[in-house]
Design a protein that fits this description.
- It is a single chain.
- The chain has about 210 residues and is an alpha/beta fold.
- The chain has one domain: 3-Layer(aba) Sandwich (Rossmann fold), CATH 3.40.50.150.
- It contains eight helices and eight strands.
- It has an eight-stranded mixed beta sheet, with helices on both faces.
- Helix 5 links the parallel strand 2 and strand 3.
- The protein is globular, with a radius of gyration of 16 Å.
Length: about 210
């Protein structure tokens, strides 16, 4: 049985993956934003690796993904993917220098448990990089209002940057550093959007939180 929030991705993995090719400027802008906050060097893992679009480009060779269809595509990109959920990571304590979550926080059944698990598998000097759709941004508000019409986002719970900061601090993280990008509709972009500090304007927000 496929869990409700995973079902749309399991059934439409190829279509989901194709979005990044069709919206190349948005994808490249998002990659740049995540890359700016990514610790290097070190051993990393992407939690909710999906089809490996981000891990592959960011040099992350290990991922966790509950959807079998998504795992298959990610493995074709050279990512070592294990089945599992963010709330129960199949790794020992303190294994990684950093962990990454890209637009998956909104799908977690228990975000507090997921962030505690990320904290657990990081080294004492480790960092977590979380990219998410900022509900407080102008475009994020539109996405939230229209999510019932989306195959993927219908079951999602979007968070504002302030709410994400609260979740991270509750899990034990500190030293939060925010970036943002995607200031208009991805399908209408004629080039890459800039990456700016802070949050609240760009739909795609990224925060680095240190353990």
């Amino acid at each position: 049985m496929v869990m409700a929030k995973i079902g749309p991705f399991e059934e439409n993995a190829g279509k989901y993956d194709g979005w990044f090719a069709e919206n190349r400027f948005a994808y490249e802008s998002e990659l740049q934003a995540v890359g700016m906050l990514l610790p290097r060097p070190g051993t990393g893992v992407e939690i909710g690796v999906g089809t490996g679009r981000f891990a592959g480009r960011l040099g992350i060779r290990l991922g966790v993904e509950p959807s079998k269809s998504m795992r298959t595509i990610a493995r074709d990109r050279g990512i070592a993917v294990v089945g599992g959920t963010a709330e129960a990571l199949p790794f020992r304590d303190g294994r990684f220098d950093y962990a990454v979550m890209v637009t998956v926080l909104c799908f977690f059944d228990d975000p507090d448990a997921a962030l505690r698990e990320a904290y657990r598998v990081l080294k004492l000097s480790g960092s977590l990089v979380v990219a998410f759709i900022d509900r407080a941004s102008p475009l994020g508000k539109e996405y939230d209002a229209r999510k019932a019409d989306s195959v993927y986002f219908r079951p999602a719970t979007f968070y504002s940057a302030g709410e994400v900061a609260g979740l991270l601090k509750r899990a034990g993280f500190r030293t939060l550093d925010f970036r943002q990008t995607i200031f208009g509709e991805p399908g209408a972009m004629a080039g890459m959007d800039p990456v700016r500090e802070g949050s609240g304007e760009g739909c795609f927000a990224v925060v680095r939180a240190d353990k």
